[in-house]
Design goal:
Elements (H helix, E strand, L loop, with lengths): L14 E5 L2 E5 L1 H5 L36 E2 L30 H27 L7 E15 L2 E15 L22 H28 L3 E15 L4 H5 L6 E5 L2 E2 L4 H13 L6 E7 L2 E7 L2 E2 L5 E2 L2 E12 L4 H28 L1 H4 L6 H14 L3 H17 L7 H13 L7 H28 L2 H6 L1
Parallel strand pairs: 3-13
Antiparallel strand pairs: 1-2, 4-5, 6-7, 6-13, 7-8, 7-9, 9-10, 11-12
Helix pairs in contact: 2-3, 2-8, 2-9, 3-6, 3-9, 3-10, 6-9
Pfam families: PDZ_6 (PF17820), Peptidase_M50 (PF02163)
Keywords: Hydrolase, Membrane, Metalloprotease, Protease, Transmembrane, Transmembrane helix, Zinc
Membrane topology: Multi-pass membrane protein
Length: 463
């Protein structure tokens, strides 16, 4: 029996949970595949997709113990002149910037839009086939506003980190006969497959549209790398500020070792030295204007024993924008960019499962996602284009996994039914499978929310 599809909450890349008449979609799964190569994350090397991987450590969670964070004032998503994507694994989020709450709202708005698109896919696929739909909600929890149209309740709810589409199949208050041919559970396998798959398809289309609009409007970023690592920001009262580092400085060498020209590796080297040197002097060769000189910085010790100096770092690159000249070129650019981002997501997911013991701690939750999006918006609003595109792709890929709480799990049950000649699994077995997935996702979601919140810099400063 097909349960009602409902919801998305935010966790690491949007994980869906099927529960009685609801299906919660946790944004959590969005980050699960969303490592950090292109997004500003927290400390070490990353890459642009969800899990930290061996070759492409994407989105690194805010769980990093160091207050050293990376940041690019120019653009978070870049490509090299020949269209070859550079491995920008250096950005880190320093946490919510409470002085610029607008950027937090922008990031939350992006996530909400992505969730609405996903659920709209399910809704339209059902509605256009004449399948009964009872609810369409943006958010979870108490209803703030609602209206009814054509037997569907549309509502806005208190917690805007998700949404859901409700079906009356298992609603005890529904007056629709249980044998009604237009209940989702009573429709042919193909019809149900279309409804289940429509959310993923909607996110894929939305991701491409976002990139296409970016190509025609602000353009795609192209970068040229230079030696060293840029220091865009130095936190007040930090070790870096105390010992003389200034915003705009370029670090050329650490403890006498020159940094490579490849930004992500250079940033990683600095991070590793700083984290491993609490209360120990670290000698930095710095370029300031046209002068080169050395500065000794003594990292403070974090609560977990690692070093921190309180700066943001980014690859030392010069970034320009390339805008499509016409529609045909826009389709070409958008197609290549979409394929590149999709490949990164898939590759990152693959690496995560192959190296799960190392990657498990890099999974991030809704708090981390919004923090990253807020940092992207604060640094350069243009970065929200690819932030949104990557989240859409992540959501689509993760939801295709054949796991109980995901769309892929629901598809797997339908395929099993097809393989059994149209005979469904016993309801009790199906409910046990889905319930186990739901419970796992809920517990994981709560854990990630608490962990990521405690790892925000302004929370750390209060501890």
């Amino acid at each position: 029996m097909m349960m009602g599809l409902e919801g998305q909450f935010s966790l690491f890349i949007l994980v869906r949970c099927l529960s009685h008449a609801h299906k919660l979609l946790f944004l959590s799964s969005i980050l699960f595949v969303f490592s950090s190569q292109i997004f500003q994350l927290k400390v070490t090397h990353y890459r642009i997709i969800l899990f930290k991987t061996k070759t492409h450590p994407l989105f690194k969670p805010l769980s990093s113990s160091s207050n050293l964070s990376f940041h690019s004032k120019t653009h978070l998503f870049s490509r090299c002149p020949l269209g070859k994507r550079l491995d920008l694994r250096s950005w880190a989020v320093s946490g919510f910037d409470l002085s610029n709450f607008e950027s937090v709202l922008e990031a939350a708005g992006v996530l909400t839009a992505i969730i609405v698109v996903h659920e709209s896919g399910h809704f339209l696929a059902a509605y256009l086939q004449g399948i009964h739909v009872s609810k369409f909600a943006v958010g979870f929890g108490p209803i703030l506003a609602k209206f009814n149209a054509k037997n569907v309740e549309y509502s806005i709810r208190a917690f805007p980190l998700g949404g859901f589409v409700g079906f009356p199949d298992n609603d005890p208050e529904s007056d629709i006969p249980v044998d009604d041919k237009n209940l989702l559970k009573n429709r042919p396998i193909l019809d149900r497959t279309i409804v289940i798959s429509a959310g993923v398809i909607a996110n894929i289309i939305f991701a491409y549209v976002i990139i296409f609009v970016q190509v025609l409007s602000v353009g795609l970023p192209v970068q040229e790398a230079f030696p060293g690592v840029l220091v865009p920001e130095v936190r007040a009262l930090s070790a870096a500020s105390r010992d003389g580092l200034l915003p705009g400085d370029v670090i050329l060498a650490v403890n006498g070792t020159n940094l490579p020209k490849t930004g992500p590796i250079a940033v990683s080297e600095i991070v590793n030295v700083i984290k491993s040197s609490p209360k120990k002097n670290v000698l930095l060769k710095v370029e300031r204007g046209k002068q080169d000189f050395e500065i000794g910085v003594t990292p403070d010790e974090s609560f977990d024993g690692t070093g921190k100096i309180g700066v943001q770092l980014s690859p030392n690159v010069n970034i320009t924008k390339v805008v499509a000249k016409d529609i045909l070129e826009a389709f070409n650019f958008a197609g290549k960019e979409f394929w590149g981002l999709s490949s990164n997501v898939i590759d990152s997911l693959k690496q995560t499962f192959l190296n799960f013991s190392q990657s498990a701690s890099k999974v991030s939750g809704p708090v981390a996602i919004i923090a990253v999006g807020a940092e992207v918006a604060r640094s350069n609003i243009d970065g929200l284009y690819q932030f949104a595109a990557v989240l859409n792709i992540n959501l689509a890929v993760i939801n295709l996994l054949p796991l109980p709480a995901l769309d892929g799990g629901s598809l797997a049950l339908v395929l099993i039914e097809a393989a059994r000649g149209g005979r469904k699994l016993p309801l009790e077995i199906e409910q046990r499978i889905m319930s186990s997935g739901i419970m796992l996702v809920i517990l994981l979601g709560l854990f990630l929310i608490v962990r990521d919140t405690l790892n925000l810099d302004f929370i750390k400063d209060m501890l």
